[in-house]
Amino acid sequence: MNQFNRALVVTHIAFRKAPPYDGLEGPYSSVANSLSSGINEVFTCQLPISGFDKPVSFGPWKNEKNFPIPTLLGNLAILKYLTDFILVIFFAAKFSLFKRNQKLLVVGVDPLCALPLTILKKIFGFKLVFYSVDFNKTRFKNKLMQYLYEKADEISARLSDQVWVVCQSLKDYKKSHFGVESIYIPNSSIFDGRLYEEGKNRKTGNKMAWTGSFLTERQYDILFGLLKQIQDIRPDMEFYFAPMSNHDKFREYAQKYYLKTAQVLELHSRRQWQEFAVTCDIGIAIYDDKFGSTEFIEPLKIWDFMMCGMPFIISSEPSISTPIKESGVAYFLDRGNQIPQNNSLNEFLKKDHLEMLREKCVNLSREYEIKRQIEIATNRL
Q1: How many CA within 13 A on the CB side of residue 373?
Q2: Cis peptide before 299 (omega within 30 of 0)
Q3: What would you report as the CA-atom Rg of the chain, rounded to the nearest whole angstrom?
Q4: How far apart are CA 91 and CA 95, in angstroms?
Q5: pLDDT (0 to 100) of residue 225
Q6: I want to staple 104 with a disulfide (CB 3.0 to 4.6 A). Which of 126, 193, 324, 368 is the partner?
Q7: Under a CB-based contact definition with an 8 Å cutoff, are residues 74 and 51 in contact?
Q8: Quick one: pLDDT at residue 1?
Q9: Torsion angles phi and psi, residue 283, rounded to 5
Q10: Which of 77, 86, 36, 33 is nearest to 56 (CA)?
Q11: Predicted local distance difference test score (pLDDT) of residue 245
């Protein structure tokens, strides 16, 4: 990364629906943190993922300035994306202007951010990376919008200097549909070995944790139905939830499904979550098998699980890399989030088995930390 003088990360972001209503951490923050370790000046351009009720942010990483945009421009999807296109052009040009004597790196974290950057890279001479973090074959009900979305993905992949993908299924998709080779950059954490060392002695062997948000209503019954079955297998299991919003709804569902010990936490950062998760023993990541994009994700939360020494249970739909599968730290449910009928979950949930998997989790987290993977990739640019 040291061959670059400045870097810009362009991304869409979601905001918390509960106080403090700030932007959620995601792939863009992991990339910006990683680049900051080897590049002197790292900037970000952050666009609200829906509407303009929140401002656009641009500037040095963690010191950005807010630029309010008229909310009217975010009322229609086509108008929102056209405005986004113009904003990316403006801020990327601002970042690049008068810096032609410097080596510049620009990362577009989704196709709608990367597309306008493909135009500017020839003008300003920066190296462009398209970081593909998800894909949805049915993202838009409108066929024209879906076509334009898929075309943006294709053009971004073909015209970027390097393509990063967050999972194997996206790598396969880019290769088979566009003939484009890509690099696996997992949505992992920057490794912090102290976290596990300081928390491992507080593990008790019976604490299960979940974090995130739900994209469909079905996920509530899917998750809590599974937890009730897990409680039947391990009656001593305690359940902890750290949702981004709808905290009271999680409490209601815990009561509805008769979970004996359940606690809903109101945390406000990924670091707070990690500091709690490291005291837990097993994670769970459940997805709606009828939701279109699940096939093309590798969940961020599983990397937090592993850095915290937590094996995990996961739906079969997400794309999980081969090293994780082969390590045995993940227990895969059958299609439709069904527990396999072979008593294998009973074995997986045993205390001594969970304890045996802890070090494997931490070692995988160390080996595949995002900073290390990005350094390897950028050295090839």
Answers
A1: 23
A2: no
A3: 21
A4: 6
A5: 97
A6: 126
A7: yes
A8: 65
A9: -110, 165
A10: 86
A11: 87
Which pTM value belongs to this model?
0.89
Note the residue count of the chain.
381
Strand segments (E) across the chain: 6-13, 41-48, 56-60, 65-67, 104-108, 127-132, 162-165, 183-184, 207-212, 238-243, 262-264, 282-285, 312-314, 330-332
Residue in the block written with tokens 């081969």 = 322
pLDDT at 215: 79
CB-based contacts of 339: which residues, under 8 Å, 6+ apart? Answer: 226, 229, 333, 345
C-beta atoms surrounding 248 within 10 Å? 9
Complete domains list, the chain, with CATH: 6-185 (3.40.50.2000), 193-367 (3.40.50.2000)
pLDDT of residue 25: 83
Instruction: Determine the Cα–Cα distance for residues 303 and 278; give it in Å rounded to an integer.
Output: 12
Whether residue 15 contacts residue 21, with contact meaning beta carbons closer than 8 Å, is answered with: yes
Intervals of the chain under pLDDT 50: none
